[in-house]
Amino acid sequence: MSKLKNLYQQLILDHSKNPRNFGSLPGANHLCQGKNPVCGEEIEVRLLVGENDLVEDIMFSGSGCSISQASASLMTQIVKGKTKAETIALFEAFQEMLKTSSSEELSPDLVSLLGKLTVFAGVREYPSRVKCAGLAWHVVKGALKHEIEAVTTE
Amino acid sequence: MLNQAPSKIFVQNIAPLCKDEFPIFQNKELVYLDNAATAHKPRCVIDRMSNFLAHENATVRRGVYKLSEKATQTYEGARKKIAKFLNASSPEEIIFTKGATEALNLVAYCFGAISLREGDEVLITAMEHHANIVPWQVICQIRRAKLKVVPLTETGELDLDALEKLITDKTKILALTHISNVLGTVNPLKEIIALAHNHNVPVVVDGSQATPHTKIDLQDLKADFYVFSGHKAYGPTGIGVLYGRKELLVQMPPYQTGGDMIETVSFERTTFALPPYRFEAGTPPIAQAIGLGAALDFIDRVGLEQIATHEDALLHYATEKLSEIPGLKIYGTAKDKASLISFTMDCAHPHDIGTVLDDDFGVAVRAGHHCAQPLMKLLGVPATTRASFALYNGSADVDKLVEALWRVREIFA
After folding, report:
1. Assuming Cys at both sites, which of A23, B162, B179, B399 could form a disulfide with B209, CB separation 3.0 to 4.6 Å?
2. What ipTM does this complex have?
3. What is d(CA B291, CA B44) in angstroms, rounded to the nearest whole number?
4. Could you report the per-residue pLDDT of B101-149, keeping only the tens digit for each?
5. Predicted confidence (pLDDT) at residue B372 exceeds the cutoff of 50
6. Which among A4, A38, A66 has the least Cβ separation from residue B348?
């Protein structure tokens, strides 16, 4: 597979064209916005966190490149139904994947934890696009911590 | 919807100028369309700098030895070349800076310091680069002055009626770009400067996008300050130029202080040198200044008229080709437009476009806000893709860009 095809895999194109869980979430009790000042991407994540720290519902809104929008869309799908702690663990695994050099194989533990999120491993070939993939995860982490001020990936 | 390029493609052959003089194009894969950000360097510039560093290097305006005297002559020779290139009335009006940004900061701080009082107004335009916005914003805060912005028309040209109305008794400075780095609009400088001068308002011009592409005659334009950067004009980075009218420069305090900008120094008191040296504290970027001189010689040798005609042909060819792509929207349709095209595509974000262009086609373009966030907001887009042309581009580069953009549609539409 070419570098470019690996970046723009069907799953990513699908989520960027038809983002899931896109819109507002009335009754959300967690909210955070984030920006990537270099690219101008903006993402807002709203969460409804219930008993036992369970993410009962999640929605996102915003605009940006296909990578940032697809990452946000997939993130919402995967985080829904997870606990806060599980979400933070995924955030950390996602960061670890992005930080792993593109010449290195991802560890089997990381791959099994991330599941279909490994579709974003291709951005490692494009240093200027890594932040696009990471933004949604920074924002959901911010939202879980109740941070209401904007976070950035800078 | 069309998803493939039309089979019958109108091809016009516009041959590049002097491309073989640019070593970077030994990389045959490179299609470089980011010239509004920085231009590549011809061999003569690289060789001139290399020879200076290898065989002529010495500090300037300090040594009593021959090597330093020769270096001083060469450095001052570059200043003379720049004065001639801009048709300034004297080389003393030419100050070397580290770039256009520093030059604009210098004018904002030093001219702002003597001309702005509380309640005064500085006028800029909606099409400025951050480098011609932020220094004015900051000096206005310091001097408690007010920043006002001239709006644009639908075509991305300055609204000259609005400009005239915005000039009041309180207006002390008008700062504007010669050519927009996003829209390509060439502002009618002579007319605008005359209008401002009728109201006794001095004019600061950001010429960064203009110097490599169009003839500049400062005695005809009558700009009070004019700045440009070396690296967009086929010269090196780390060197820029501030032209200032002598009567204004002599009134201005120094920007930075230190060696070489003084007349006498004692622990009690220092007196400052006359311009241009007052504004050149410390050892200047000597090789870079000489490199810029060589770059302007190169431009003179090719001829700005020939360059302008060539780039104009490229602009028209590219505009026509890009307009055939469904969902592609061009921003900036001024009658007098420089050779750059900002556009968006309805199917893809500029960053996705930039990645596909570079990766599969070796086409380098700029994707982003172009250091003009207020203008992006006005256009209602977070970012655009920009292709900007130079003399070494030809129609083959445009064809490659267009082919790549059709591929973008295939992937994202």
Report:
1. B179
2. 0.86
3. 9
4. 999 999 999 999 999 999 999 999 999 999 999 999 999 999 999 999 9
5. yes
6. A66
